[in-house]
Design a protein that fits this description.
The protein contains no helices and 18 strands. Residues 1-10 have low confidence and may be disordered. With 176 residues, it is mainly β. The two termini are 22 Å apart. Helix content is 0%, strand content 51%. The strands form four sheets. It has a six-stranded antiparallel sheet with strand order 3-4-5-12-7-10, with no helix packed on it. Strands 2-16-15-18-13 form a five-stranded antiparallel sheet, with no helix packed on it.
Length: 176
Amino acid sequence: MLRMNPPASLPAFATHLAALARPTRPWDNGGGVTRDLVDDGHASWRWRLSLADIDADGPFSAMPGVERWFAVADGEGVALTIDGTPMVVRPLDPPLVFDGALAPHCQLLNGPVRALNLMLRDGARGVLRRAGRGVVWSEDWPLRGHFVNAGLVLDWGAPPGPLAARGEGCWIGVRA
């Protein structure tokens, strides 16, 4: 990432998606709900980006064989215990990556949160990177976008080239 004044000719995103307009579905363990934002289009997905509502303390669903990227998009943050190691994740912290089989325990810091989750399996590769207003991202992943925390909006499907952050949130890159 490089902080600079973005040029006026940066490419536009193909899709602008209001995350809260997406339907919810329950977590595998029944402990909360999530909204699928984008995925590879297959029922047995290789990659998926979602926004989860975490309203109470408790465990995440165990997801063996899944690499999970996690970033707090809304709320104060969470304290996660992953394989016995405690860590705190707040909205402006770098995204956390962990083995989905470990099913961390989550404790809310000060009320409910919404978390952006990138899940990868079966050889899919991807990344979440912290983004802020004025930060330009030049990593050319085949599939990429920008999630803006304010408004919980996903801009997805940019052509190659530098992208300018439209606000605090995360860059997303995927190679299926």
